[in-house]
Structure to design on (1752 residues):
């Protein structure tokens, strides 16, 4: 344990204080550090711990200590213990504007699911063909909150917000041609959405969006 | 009415479609246009209409047509009809980090109030003196959502999000020294908040924050 | 005439070379310079000359030399000779997303009109209420080119491009809250539009958009 | 087909609605996803499908399902069915300012060609030696639209626009020394072109430019 | 003199050390400070002193102490003693792309002239009509250095550099529509000029360009 | 007092907690708010209170409640009680690169002085004439910390840091031509200073620099 | 030695002039250059020389010439001679907000230590859980200066500065999601910290922070 | 030759028109293209041709066609024919602020040398130790022009310009910590240099600087 303390101070009380489990952001951590944290986590199976932004090597380090953890390679996410909690609160619908936005959308959906919400995923419904998003309107209107993940022009969250009463969590992705500037264009679009009701999070931050959605849809 | 159509297409159905009243963004509109819209609004007293970003001259134009409208000059906001709806849903707490953030915070609080939520306002509790925000912790934990308005470093929303279970709506303001870059610094801080659960809106957009908070705290 | 040469070299051959009249960009010119150019223009009534970005004082200077010029104060545009040429080529439809985008939209429409195109103007049809733009679909599909003027999130041009076969000329405006960054957000959105067929011009450049539209809709 | 639906919603109606074929943006898609889409495309040989931004691995995945597709490795573009449609409408001339701009220029030319336009390509005619572009003036003036692809200072589109009556589609490329900022400098130059008639698209977006040109030169 | 020392330390030795006179940058100085410096300057009539960026009030303050100073209000420049030195070294040609660039171009020309060079001024020869700059080619080729002042796309310096053997000093100006970003677009264009031989100075810095040109054309 | 609580929560304990007095940032506050705070301050004459960024109107509001306050209009600073505390700790030398940097330099010097340090001010010693700063070397080397205030290229702090053993507090100012970008250029220069030992603060933030210097030079 | 002079001019006098040892910035230097410098350093064992930003290959090159040098691979730092000097002056506490900030924090701590200060390291105490930093308050208040290393929102330095009397050296790191923009967000947060007393250095510049801290804590 | 025309239009007349040889910018060109150009160059040994930004693979391609070309791998530059022309005109001194700036400095020096100027190189004389640059003052003052190459804060060109009468060509490099932003910080510093007489070129553009210097020092 002394070694763990030299690089991490696990916030064991967070689950009590905020009511939500801790997440370990793997990017920037060494494999040794991630493995050490995973080993420490094994002692508290009562709360879910998420490992986000996990590269394949990070995932291997986690699975070494927690072999029965859930792992979604596309989303770069692991969860332990693996069983999904029984859903409580409102429905969280996650929308991916394009196929390239799927990894972030899945990270978002899985986070909300492990935080105890019912989730649905809708894919490839960008504004270039409005009929696609409109065809899902009935389901969107059943949601307590809708997470919309979009790169390029990032216009979809504003369009969705104009169609429903529930709040929209908007996630810009770093997908697109040069002047997308790694997600900056989509980020600005979302911050400037004409329709009110759009909550913006960081670029490619599917975890943050799923967490926020789970809080909004809390019972 | 023909003249009105030459510059505005009021979205009369929005209240039914989304369940929230329409808002008229006055900045960039001429006094004649604002007066014309105010006159048209008079014919539908059943839903509240907000006029936001109203300069004193804009306000005068609105009050010419709707003399009994509510007007908060500091927030640049008018509402008609003036009576506040009976509150439903959860509590919305609005926090202003500094005195200079008050106009935006008031715009946010009044919007949530006219959209039917109970509201509270907390002022001058920036992170430079942590004891100030901590002293309000009991009220913050009663909220269904907390709106945090902050300029300069914009650090307060992340600190508040780390202390409570409810989501935080973060509003950067254009207050600060040169490298605040008119709110850009605070905006980036909020998007990068370490604590999950922070929903970011546009710089100085108190109306958008209040609307989003009302949706999150909806019954 | 010697004095004129000290500050301007009128491109008298431009009408022959490119087939379109010259425009005098007034911003940044002194009143004396604008008046001198207007006086020189009087000697060639066979081609239309436009004066763009004309402040009220600039307009007065032009009208001093060309009292019978056409003048649209909102658009900051003058034209001489005033009679509109008989329209040739295809239809140019100009769409303003919001009321605040009207001055730029009018500049665009008037430019196309004085360059010899038939024009239509549609107002206040932003993406926050999709039914508004959809209700104009029949007219949009009749156009040879559609100019879409939008501030804030600038999402409308991409949505329109997804609905029609004709090209869209997109004009970002400097309208919006702080993170609109004086039109930068809308500009990036338009450059990243998911639907192909969007031609972007400079922020608030209604003249450029009208000129480009007239070229696209040329007979 | 159920698997395809989990990551893509092909817009089969786009060809009817807009009159132009669909394009599959490969960047950001996995090889499995691209292969799945290619397999689905095989069932509709009546319209051309383009695959853009295809890496060699993407191309292999497409060619696995559509072995007789056209493939231009430099442009990263595939088309199926391979035969070029008979040209209709006006001439599209594509100009590459420098040799390094060729891949984007070819993507643009091939797109316009597969969308049914006659095309010509002109190479290495940057503004550092004006005589080079001027020597092509006769052909440029025959075009219904000219696509100009340029990196570094991006000055060529404005120069070309000043020489011809037809509109110019300007494509900035990410070619250049440090302060080119990956195409930002060229993008800004093009948006600020002194000569009217310049339609700007995203950095390195040859596909978008070719599509827009095909629309402008439509019969 | 004690008071002068509290806000300025005149670099009396600069003329000896560098061979060029001192310039007093008036912007940001109070009228009292400018007047105090002007009074101190009176004691050294042997070298020219320039006052740059002088508002009308600054100019009045200078002329109060040095009534016989030369003053060009458009350029915001004063010089004392007023007589122009006899020209030595090579010819400096200053080119203004548009009429709006004239004030900066005049500041540049006058600086070079007071630093002892022969100067010529060419106006309104932007790249939108190439024939205009080409018509001055003979004079441009006689120059030891050419200063080119341009706003908007800032493309002219690169075009001129491609036509002549002498170096070009490029001065971006803050003239243009929104995406000119107060001269940033022109600045980047000039830094990325395809033709070698372009020396860039700060936005609107006519003084710096004139000084640099005088050094390049020194005997 | 109830009214004061509606817009400010004075941090009366700050002096005990941190050992330094409170400062009231006037920019963005109304005159009523500043006057109310000044009135409240009168009840605690035992610690110094600073009012920074005070416009003339703000100053009048403060002086209405605290007529015997110290006021430096150029620095926009007031202090109450007015007597300067007896100096303790090390010497703070404040250097202004140019005359235009004087207001910020004075704000910095006065802050350090009211926080109890001995101070010296050196003016107009920019890097364009190195002999000027070198002539003050003996005094610079006596300082416990040197504050260097510079606009334009902001190069002076790095040069000073290379000459002395004490740390340098660098303050960028918003002085300069266009590409100074309101102090951004100087800010970046200072952050990238080749010589270690440079502590950077916000643009034009003389107060912050003076406070930091006082802490560094504390006994 | 002649070869060394072709690429480096070692500042042998720096230790005398400034009182601190020289540091060799390895990034951007070839292995041959680094090896050559290391060989030259061997002749002056009386002062410590640091090698910073050393990749594993750089480290090997240094160790080839100075086999008994100290080497911390995570921090990319070597020191020779290896023995740590006896500490003088005040205590330097280095705080790393997250585990990913550790390499920069270690570089900072080691630099201060080799410059002769006593150091302590505190890890993983970000603002998302305030109780973590508060639990170290007693040690923080014993420090003469605190170095705070933080990525993402960069909020920790401002919070720490509000809790203690000593100055804080803030180091932004390039850790975080997209809108962290490689440390820009954290940098701006720190420059805008509400609490005075924050000295900002360059992104990821642990060496600079450690050097500055050693100067501030000098005896 | 037909194949060459498909990707390059060699400007054979440039040497006559401008008096300087052509340079082939290799970055972004394929090996086949570079080899083809090199083969075409062999037919005109009367003028020097430079190949810049040549990777090792590019260099091999050039040397395949021109085996006796001069090659400097560090500078990424080749020249053919290899013999250096007899120097004419004034002396060009090239200064590299740090060792890491050497590749760009060498590219600059070699370009000037192959364009017919006498050159000298000075290395590692950054502003952190002023005595280093001052020790070369005599040679600097003999130059007709000085090229100063610097990364990080980019302060050296302004300091040199303040010491000499000749113009300075400033080359920012992409060397430095995070907030150097790949050379942007140094670029801005140089554009804002307090001392007049600084001509700025693109980041890392040693070729451009050497060319400009050769023009300035032309006989």
């Amino acid at each position: 344990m002394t070694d763990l303390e030299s690089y991490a101070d696990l916030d064991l009380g967070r689950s009590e204080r905020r009511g939500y489990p801790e997440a370990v952001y793997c990017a920037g951590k060494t494999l040794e550090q991630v493995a050490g944290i995973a080993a420490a986590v094994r002692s508290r199976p009562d709360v879910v711990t998420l490992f986000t932004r996990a590269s394949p090597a990070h995932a291997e380090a986690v699975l070494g200590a927690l072999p029965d953890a859930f792992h979604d390679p596309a989303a770069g996410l692991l969860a332990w213990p693996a069983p999904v909690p029984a859903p409580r609160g409102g429905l969280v619908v996650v929308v991916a504007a394009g196929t390239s936005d799927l990894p972030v959308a899945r990270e978002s959906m899985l986070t909300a699911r492990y935080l105890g919400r019912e989730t649905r995923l809708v894919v490839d419904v960008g504004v270039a063909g409005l009929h696609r998003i409109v065809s899902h309107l009935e389901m969107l209107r059943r949601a307590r909150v809708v997470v919309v993940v979009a790169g390029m022009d990032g216009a979809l969250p504003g369009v969705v917000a104009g169609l429903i009463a529930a709040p929209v969590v908007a996630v810009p992705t770093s997908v697109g041609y040069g002047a997308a500037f790694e997600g900056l264009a989509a980020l600005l679009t979302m911050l400037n959405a004409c329709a009110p009701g759009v909550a913006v999070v960081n670029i490619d931050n599917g975890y943050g969006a799923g967490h926020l959605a789970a809080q909004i849809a809390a019972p």
